[in-house]
Amino acid sequence: MKPLFVAIEGIDGAGKGTTTRNVKALLEQRGLNVATLSFPNYGATQAARSIEAMLNGQFMPTSAYHIATLFSLDRAETLAGKAPWDCDVVVCDRYTASNAAFQGARLPAVELDSFLGWLFDYEFSRLGLPRPDLQILLKIDPKTASALVLKKGQRDYTDKDQDLFETDARYQESVAAAYDRISAHPLAGRWEVVAVDSGGDLRTPEMIAADVAERVLARL
């Protein structure tokens, strides 16, 4: 039986990694066998090594399509020979929609539909990557998210407090707007939106994970 494939999405600082880990623990408490993935797969693929260099400012690709290709190839290299999984649920920290939002935000709004058509065809048809059954958008105010990024611990792919993308506040706002458009797009599949902050107050990681886990369980 094919496992339920869930992608956790959101701008930098939304808590995707923490939510992925917490949801895995909650689902396992319910007796489910859960696998997790995280993209980019830093230190494990050739494409991810190029992404690391880019995020550390060592080079900048010439277009959104070029950048998107690196992230797509990282997924393809990571997933080669892994499917089908012998588990009940796969929870993924970032997937194709992350690529769509972060690179689509670099384009004029009128070009987003064309970019999405190209990207979804490239990842799902040409590279043969599995489509997620459910995508969870962790919704957070970009200013709050930026402050949370600065509280992150040391990360493997950079020695800086923020990587190249995280330092640009306007870019993060554009990514948030792109996620809003993509989550309502007919090509983008099934979405659920989960609030990270409400009325200026952050919800606890436990509350967020419980909300996400409930939506996952409803799909099983």
UniProtKB/TrEMBL annotation:
One of its GO terms (cellular component) is cytosol. One of its GO terms (biological process) is dUDP biosynthetic process. It catalyses: dTMP + ATP = dTDP + ADP. Its EC number is 2.7.4.9. Keywords: ATP-binding, Kinase, Nucleotide biosynthesis, Nucleotide-binding, Transferase. Coiled coil: none annotated. InterPro entries: P-loop_NTPase, Thymidylate_kin-like_dom, Thymidylate_kin_CS, Thymidylate_kinase. The keyword Nucleotide-binding applies. Residues 8-175 form the Thymidylate kinase-like domain. Pfam families: Thymidylate_kin. GO terms for molecular function: ATP binding; dTMP kinase activity. The keyword Cell cycle does not apply. Belongs to the thymidylate kinase family. Phosphorylation of dTMP to form dTDP in both de novo and salvage pathways of dTTP synthesis. HAMAP family: Thymidylate_kinase. This is Thymidylate kinase. It comes from Caulobacter vibrioides OR37. The gene is tmk.
